[in-house]
Design brief:
441 residues, alpha/beta, Rossmann fold, 3 domains, three-stranded antiparallel sheet, 16 helices
């Protein structure tokens, strides 16, 4: 049989399976046609198992598959021996199909989900081979799909998993002290008070050391039109950050809105409803530089950004002058401990940060990642909990953007043209140095 005839026959076979309620995608049919063209199945029995492994994902479809296979292949090749009288086709007729709209809708949704999972695996550069039967749930498959491809019902099913992601901020040395037997400073008052027990002789020296405290966390989420599907998913993560990590949450489109108080509610649905009422610029334009300047003027320079871990979720599509964004990112970099930028476009094949806003902000970013799916959000959580990058550490996909530090000293990128350094406070030369007896818990 010619290759064209084989492809046509397999296409009709897949179409008949779909008519009988078996969810078969075009990619599955193409893989089966490739195997047949390579002469992998040499007998009818091998063809049966090859088609069954490639096309079926549920044991409930085996009966319909066997009937369609018998009608298409066994009826053409071996009908006289396996089915009796070739003129009697009564035994080859398929059983009547149930008219169940709910079942049809479920099968179509499952086929669509399977196609999008395969597309997500191909985008990530993974090799798609022969399907292997597994017991993976639909929630596990949803974690691989890009947020922009999820329906409202699928995002609702995935929301509990997003809320369970726990962000653990890195630690810093606090100015407050606690009693420690190997502390770096003598507590004179406590030592003299204790000496009254030994007749005024200070036989025991009481020492104190600095405490370790979690760093402040700040999240800035882009809610413009190009980021709308990703913003819906990230709001569930930011709810967990606001309630468990006590993070400050802001959203921006054409204006800057603070959502911290609205999201700090034990009921996530109620918290998201309150937050939605505070976002009049949802799915509008983008003014990243203006929003960062508003944040720095009202909150950042007043202490919120000092020594904090800052998460920015945006695709970098800036409507205003990119130089404004560059100056504000430089100011934020001098105040913050670490800046993590999540751009869902990073996962696209052939991506390059060529957008004006993204190119202007990238020199001041410590970690540049995608965060386009639930699986990718685990990398975002991991980056938020890590310490500052040192010289030679990779920031983007295994490549080094720039050396941030040399010999333990923090070195900021060069300022943008026309920027006044005297307007900004200077960052200390060494951040988070270890004192004697001060060990993280």
């Amino acid at each position: 049989m010619r290759a064209a005839d084989t492809a046509t026959l397999l296409a009709h076979f897949s179409e008949r399976l779909r008519v009988e309620g078996v969810a078969v995608s075009p990619d599955q049919t193409m893989r089966l046609a490739t195997l047949v063209a390579l002469d992998v199945p040499r007998t009818l029995e091998e063809l049966y198992w090859c088609a069954r492994v490639n096309l079926l994902r549920s044991t409930a479809d085996i009966a319909a598959f066997d009937a369609v296979f018998a009608l298409v292949f066994r009826g053409m090749v071996d009908i006289a021996q396996s089915r009796g009288d070739p003129n009697d086709l009564g035994d080859l007729r398929l059983p009547p199909r149930r008219n169940d709209p709910l079942l049809d809708e479920e099968l179509r949704a499952d086929a669509s989900l399977h196609q999008r999972v395969e597309a997500a695996e191909i985008t990530a550069g993974e090799e798609v081979g022969r399907p292997v039967p597994t017991l993976a749930s639909s929630d596990e498959r949803l974690t691989k799909i890009d947020f922009a491809q999820l329906t409202a019902d699928e995002l609702s099913a995935l929301a509990p998993l997003l809320r369970m992601l726990y962000v653990s901020p890195p630690l810093r040395l606090s100015r407050r002290r606690r009693r420690h037997r190997r502390g770096d400073r003598l507590d004179v008052r406590a030592t003299l008070r204790h000496s009254t027990r030994s007749g005024g002789d200070p036989a025991v020296s009481i020492r104190r050391t600095r405490k370790w405290a979690p760093r402040r966390m700040v999240a800035l989420l882009d809610i413009s039109g190009s980021m709308e599907p990703y913003a819906r998913a990230y709001l569930h993560l930011l709810w967990g950050m606001a309630t468990r990590a006590h993070a400050e949450v802001f959203v921006f489109g054409t204006r800057l809105t603070r959502l911290t108080r609205a999201l700090r509610d034990a009921n996530p649905d109620l918290a998201l409803d309150r937050a939605a009422a505070l976002m009049p610029d949802w799915s509008g334009g983008t003014r990243i530089g203006w929003a960062l300047r508003e944040f720095m003027d009202l909150h950042g320079r007043r202490g919120m950004a000092r020594g904090a871990v800052v998460l920015i979720v945006s695709d970098g599509w800036e409507r205003d002058d990119p130089s404004v964004l560059s100056r504000q990112m430089f100011a934020l970099h001098r105040h913050a401990y670490r800046i993590v930028w999540a751009n869902p476009r990073v996962a696209a094949p052939g991506f390059a940060p060529l957008a004006g806003g993204m190119a202007a902000a990238l020199p001041y970013v410590d970690s540049f990642i995608s965060g386009h799916s639930a699986d990718a959000l685990t990398e975002v959580v991991r980056e938020l909990g890590t310490t500052r990058l040192r010289a030679g550490d990779s920031v983007i996909g295994g490549g080094t953007v720039a050396a941030r530090a040399t010999a333990g000293a923090v070195v900021a990128p060069p300022p943008p043209p026309g920027h006044q350094l005297r307007d900004l406070p200077r960052r200390p030369a060494v951040v988070g140095h270890h004192l004697p007896g001060a060990q993280p818990p």
